[in-house]
Every structure is written in C-alpha cells, then in structure tokens.
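We modelled each protein-ligand pair independently. The example shown here corresponds to the adenosine-5'-triphosphate entry; the chain sequence is given first, followed by the ligand as SMILES.
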Amino acid sequence: MVSLDISIQSKVYPNSLERVLEGLDFSVSKGEFVALVGPSGAGKSTLLNMIAGLEKSDPGEVFYNGHSMEDRPPCKIGYIFQQPRLMPWLTVAENLRLVMPKVSDTQIEAILGRVGLSGKSASYSKQLSGGMQRRVSIARAFLTQPELLLLDEPFVSLDAPNAQRLRDLLLELWQEHKPTVVFVTHDLNEAIQLADRVLFLSSAPGKVVLDKVVDIQRPRLSEGSAFLQWKAQMLSEHSGLLEGDRQQDCYDAE
Ligand SMILES: Nc1ncnc2c1ncn2[C@@H]1O[C@H](COP(=O)(O)OP(=O)(O)OP(=O)(O)O)[C@@H](O)[C@H]1O
C-alpha cells in the first residue's frame, strides 16, 4: 500500500494567474480512507489529479511512500471519476480488459459478481443504466487491486438507494484489500459515513482548514445517534466551515 505526503506551496495553471491551491499540507497513511470535502472550485479535482500524476506537480509536492513523484517505484493506482468513462462501443469485459489485458473470463465474472453485474460481461456499456456503468467503473478500479484508490465524487447524481448500495460496496472492497483511499465529495454525510478522516478544504485557493478523525464505529448510519452527535459537535466547534456557498447548500440539504 501507499502512504502519501502532500505539500503544495502554490498551484497555478499555466494558462491562468489564479492560485488554485495554496499552503496545502497533509499526509495519508497506508490503507487509510480519507475524504476531501470543500466548496466548488476549491481545487479538489486538481489535487486528486496531481496525486495521480495526471496534472503536473513540482518536485517536493507529492510523495509516495517517501519517494518523490519522479523517483517513486511503480504503483497500482485506481481512479474513479465523476463519470464512469467507459468506451460505449466496447463490451463490459472489453472495457475491463483495457486496464488489465490478460485478465481471465473467470476473474471478470468474479469481479462483476461482486458489483452485482453477473452475466453482463458481453453487454455493451451503452446498453447499461448509469448506475450499472458506475458499478463497472468500480469493478474496473478494483480489478487491478490498486494500492492507491482515488475517487472524484463517484456517486454524484445517482438516486439515494443506488448511491448507498455503491457506498456499501466500496467500503466492502476497501475493507478486503485495504488500498489507501482519497475520496472527494461535496456531501458531508457521505464523508462521515465512509472515511477514517475528513479533510476540509477552504474556498479557492484551497488549503486544509480542518483535519478531523471520524472516530465512529462502522457501519455508520447517517440517522444513528453517534453519527448525528459527531456531525453536530464538529459543526458547532467549526462553524466557519459553513462559509462557501455550495458547501453551505450541501450541509443544509442534509
Ligand atoms: N486545466 C485547467 N486549466 C486552468 N484552470 C483550471 C483547469 N482545471 C481546473 N481549473 C480551475 O481550477 C480551479 C479549481 O478547479 P477544480 O476542478 O480542481 O475544483 P473542485 O474543487 O474540484 O471543483 P468542483 O467541486 O466544482 O468539481 C477552478 O477555478 C477551475 O476553473
């Protein structure tokens, strides 16, 4: 598994003058599940892309197991995006084989069974519902048994029961393989339900304004008393977190 050390003095895109991230420092332990919560535009996706190496970082900003990005040994990374990003003209099995060409039919059936898609390997992804496509994207991410799993609001725009089923599945798979997880969400309840630790980012330029361990036993029900108590206490102690329009909307909606 992978530990992460992040220390970003300042992130500015080359075509812009705006600072997206500034003075952002945190670490993630091996096998830890960390949620990043913050208002729109705080730079959460940018940060995830820098961790994945999809967006340029400067030397000294991102370390894997103490190694800088340039020197890190090879590491299996799974990335689940907001959109499932499947190739519509390929079957489910062919989409899975894009990340792992030599995977056997048996392995494909096994992972599809885990995500509730038994018998769908020959279906074209365009024939699947949105929720089913997301399950394929989860299967694809877990197929390689990643050491680091990055998720960018993967369950946004799903109906509540489907989103909950996928959260349960994610937790189940995480508990089996224990990859290190960085999970971006706008939904505070989702963050509390899933994560070992919640990091709150400020409005742009984003930096960590609160780093809070979620010391509630799993499974965590959002209507459970320990859950509600933890959330109420955290919000009363850190009322400033409610600054930022979309973050405010999100908390109010819950
Ligand atoms: N490739 C890019 N070039 C220039 N600016 C960018 C690029 N990608 C993102 N940005 C800008 O960086 C800022 C942060 O964007 P980012 O998508 O990282 O935020 P976010 O917190 O993930 O937002 P949201 O929650 O709305 O998805 C925004 O102002 C965005 O316009």
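DSSP finds eight helices and ten strands in the chain.
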